[in-house]
Model the fold of this input.
Amino acid sequence: MKITLSGLAGFVALAGVLSFLFLAVALGTDFWYIIDASRLERVSNSSAALSSHSGLWRTCRPRSKCFPLMNPFWYENINMTASHKQLLNMHGTFVILLPLSLILMIFGGMTGFISILAKAYLLLLMTGWLFLFGGLVTLTGISVYIAYSAAAFKEALCLLGKNNLLEKVDIKFGWSLVLVWVSFIAEVLTGAAFLLAARVVGLKQKREQRI
Done:
């Protein structure tokens, strides 16, 4: 099967747009981390909603308004433990990395459009590495978020002590995080396709020079 530049152009356009849309939707939704406390609500006969679902910026409860998470960049004057400061530092890291990946995709889309139209080898090569670097940024952001979630859960266990309340609570990652994983895969595939397109253009230029 012969790989053509037009075929690769169609693939990078589709994969790049999907990667951007999935990441943008994930950043704007609040289903990264889901706490289902319905069993605890039934046992305690509590009328208050104990379940919640969280995003990068806020936490929401059923039948009530969402409230923003603590700003991870403005806490110098607040007394808190070292573990709380570590959580805020991790929070600040992934809320920078994931939007940064979105910005890199915008730049990559612009350079990719120009490079395919101009059939510019170096620009195609640079765009490919830009998307792969963006994928690395996304993966780092995901990893920090997962580590942050684990650290927050550990902190909750320490605060509750031997209390068995968490046994009646189901905690899981939500579909927003799934979208980020799909975005990461599409971003890496886009970068690899641009590198392949650069190779196709480079080989074509070499053949033309020989003639």
The radius of gyration is 22 Å.
